[in-house]
Design goal:
This protein has about 575 residues and is of the alpha/beta class. About 30% of the residues lie in helices and about 15% in strands. Bound molecules: uridine-5'-diphosphate.
Length: about 575
């Protein structure tokens, strides 16, 4: 069945229901952004005319909001607790609804069982009959509940896990994680890592889901130009604890600007917030937007990490000033990230804005250096900055991306890669190499005269590189102005790829290691990947040069290549 865009959200609002502060927050957000979603749907519909879009049966089980997982979030909605997850789930639900799919929402284990046709009962009860959904969006809590209550008896290829910070392949493969010290409380589900969907495009090993930022119309843009107060700053931090130990920075900033805060408080002003700060208390999202429209500077104190608020500030014409982390923080050296299934290095409070947006909208400096901080504030006062939203964080961008995932990502079908180690040995004669050198480059491309196996993204986008030692494929592709594409790994895990890249292999073996396929730098031993779940863009080794499958991406829509739509 064909899916048709929907511009009316009333059915969705009804399904989301209320009764909990978290749900009311999501409904308010959906209502406020309704016109923006409808306009985006019209534009995308126009652009996709002629494409068939299959309507899918989708179950959304929001695990972290279920009573069974303890629902620690709902009671904190009005008290400065994390709202980023709520923002993202509201936008995911709206995206799926607007794209015209057949949506079912579950917010308790009982509803989950009901939706899957499992009789509620004691212990784990397997699903009887075929899965009544094409796709299930959930989170790590939901995954755990499915395992506990129905033994995950259906094929897991239908599942998508909303996973804020991301999960890297080394942590996802149970056996490998256990043997090699990558075992955490969260990872080891043996999914295809693209089934994990993140809040920002952290590692291309996962799919980037994202959320949306409120857009401005022409009148609002003009109003911003007129009403901006050049010496007004808003501090990023809903909770008083985020302000702890920041007196010095605040007093420097106060020499230049009036400082506003939106810190939650009960009876008295929190002692962490100095008297010269105008604290508005926690604001409804809409009022926060108004405040950001007037302000010139949005100041991050280092926590929370990677939330939506900096994008909202930049969208409203603020400059985001944030601390650089040196050394970078990660699960290996920092309490907050410990136990998260990723080794990703976080270089500042908000690496996405640092790397993908940058100056003049984002200034990242060492906050331990007061002089550097003060100079940044002075520069910000002088600069004139326009509101900005990366296209991937607009409604149209999110609809386009999620639509592409829904129509093209298929983790149930096993891809049949071009010659694997075993195939090529059993071939008689020399199989033709599927790779060609790209003119004026060290990269290889898929040879146009050899039929490319079915793959999404299409293999025409492949650019194959040999990484320098001690460099991940994330970095290697980035340095070439491209992005690593893990879906291509199965097609480059072969002797033809090593030969094409002139790796000069003395030997070739297949092993389980999350940096393979790779060449050992001293011994010229070449290694293929034996476990497809371990193909990893993020993996890095000082002793190896890795084979890196890269692809192009659309500017402002990093999840998609030019030929991906
Ligand atoms: N927010 C709000 N009122 C405030 C401060 C923040 O509604 O006074 C909203 C803000 O619009 C953003 C959301 O809280 O969309 C999440 O903000 P943050 O970046 O702090 O991320 P979190 O740590 O909450 O996930």
């Amino acid at each position: 069945r064909q899916a048709f865009f929907r511009s009316d959200l009333s059915l969705l609002l009804e399904r989301v229901g209320s009764g909990k502060e978290s749900l009311s927050f999501m409904r308010r957000r959906m209502r406020r952004l309704a016109a923006q979603w409808a306009a985006a749907a019209r534009r995308l519909d126009e652009r996709l005319r002629g494409h068939h879009r299959e309507q899918k049966r989708i179950l959304v089980h929001v695990g972290f909001l279920t009573e069974e997982s303890g629902d620690v979030f709902s009671p904190k909605v009005l008290k400065g607790g994390p709202l980023g997850e709520m923002v993202q789930w509201a936008d995911i639900l709206t995206t799926l609804h607007v794209l015209g799919h057949n949506l079912k929402i579950s917010l308790s284990v009982k509803e989950l069982q009901g939706s899957l046709g499992v009789p509620p009962g004691r212990g784990s009860c397997p699903l009887i009959g075929p899965l009544p959904f094409d796709l299930i969006y959930t989170d790590y809590h939901g995954l755990q509940q499915m395992k506990q209550h129905m033994g995950l008896s259906f094929r897991q290829c239908h599942i998508r896990v909303i996973d804020t910070f991301g999960t890297e392949p080394a942590y996802n493969n149970e056996e490998y994680a256990t043997v090699n010290g990558y075992r955490t409380n969260w990872g080891y589900w043996n999914l295809n890592c693209k089934q994990y969907m993140t809040m920002f495009p952290h590692t291309p090993d996962n799919s980037f889901m994202g959320f949306v930022t409120e857009e401005l119309n022409q009148t609002e843009r003009l109003m911003i130009q007129r009403d901006k107060v050049n010496n007004m700053a808003v501090v990023y931090g809903k909770e008083a604890s985020m302000w702890k130990g920041k007196e010095k920075l605040l007093s420097i900033l106060h020499r230049y600007m009036d400082i506003h805060g939106t810190v939650y408080y009960e009876a008295q002003r929190p002692p962490e917030v100095p008297a010269f700060v105008r604290n508005h208390g926690l604001l409804p999202q809409q009022e926060l937007q108004q405040l950001l429209r007037k302000a010139k500077l949005f100041l991050g104190f280092g926590f929370p990490y990677e939330g939506p608020a900096p994008l909202e500030a930049i969208a409203n014409g603020c400059v985001f000033l944030q601390p650089k982390f040196s050394p970078p923080r990660s699960s290996l050296n920092h309490e907050f990230f410990r136990g998260k299934p990723t080794s990703r290095e976080v270089s500042s409070q908000h690496p996405y804005t640092e790397q993908y947006i940058g100056k003049p909208h984002v200034i990242t400096v060492d906050f331990n250096n007061s002089q550097e901080f003060e100079t940044a504030v002075q520069d910000i006062l002088k600069d004139k900055v326009e509101p900005f939203i990366p296209s991937e964080y607009t409604c149209e961008g999110m609809l386009e991306r999620v639509n592409a995932y829904i129509q093209h990502q298929d983790f149930c079908r096993r891809s049949s890669p071009f010659p694997t180690a075993n195939d090529s040995r059993s071939w008689s004669g020399n199989p033709p190499s599927p790779f060609l050198q790209l003119p004026n480059s060290t990269a290889l491309i898929w040879a146009p005269n050899i039929t490319a196996p079915a793959c999404w993204p299409p293999l025409s986008a492949l650019r194959l590189f040999l990484s320098p030692e001690d460099s991940s494929c994330v970095k290697t592709c980035q340095d070439a102005g491209l992005i690593c594409e893990p879906a291509f790994f199965p097609f480059i895990n072969n002797i033809e790829a090593f030969n094409g890249l002139n790796a000069q292999c003395e030997s070739l073996e297949a092993e389980k290691n999350h940096v393979f396929p790779a060449v050992h730098v001293d011994r010229r031993e070449c290694f293929q990947q034996k476990e497809p779940l371990l193909f990893s863009c993020a993996g890095v080794s000082a002793k190896h040069q890795r084979l890196c499958p890269c692809r192009d991406y659309i500017h402002g829509q990093v999840a998609l290549c030019r030929d991906c739509l």
